[in-house]
Amino acid sequence: MPPSAGYLGELVSKLSASPPRLILLNAYNDPKAAKWLSDRIHVPIATLPFSVGGSSGAKDLFGLFDDTINRLEAAIQ
């Protein structure tokens, strides 16, 4: 069951008053909800690789960590 309009309005109000620095999105879910929220509270989205091989930069475990950190840093700049 999708959230009600009232709940979404309350969520946007709370997050607008005290916004997060960014919205985290995994690579395997639909980005539509994150985009909707990002558009309303004006917060960037960072899509993170979910495992080794989850992105071109995540070829091994160290690459996964490096790619994740790079994506987080890029999103908040």
Structural notes for this entry:
The chain is mainly alpha-helical. The protein has helices at 5-17, 32-41, 61-76, and strands spanning 23-26, 45-48. A two-stranded parallel ribbon has the order 1-2. The protein starts with a helix and ends with a helix. The model has no long low-confidence stretch (mean pLDDT 91).
Rg, nearest Å: 15 Å
Q: Class by helix and strand content?
A: mainly alpha
Strand percentage = 5-15%
State the helix count: 3
The pLDDT mean sits at: 91
Q: In angstroms, what separates the terminal alpha carbons?
A: 36 Å
| Sequence stretches where pLDDT stays below 50 over 5 or more residues | none
The coarse silhouette is elongated
Major sheet: 2 strands, parallel
Q: Strands across the major sheet, in which order?
A: 1-2
Q: How many beta-strand elements?
A: 2
Order of helices and strands: HEHEH
In percent, how helical is the residue content?
40-55%
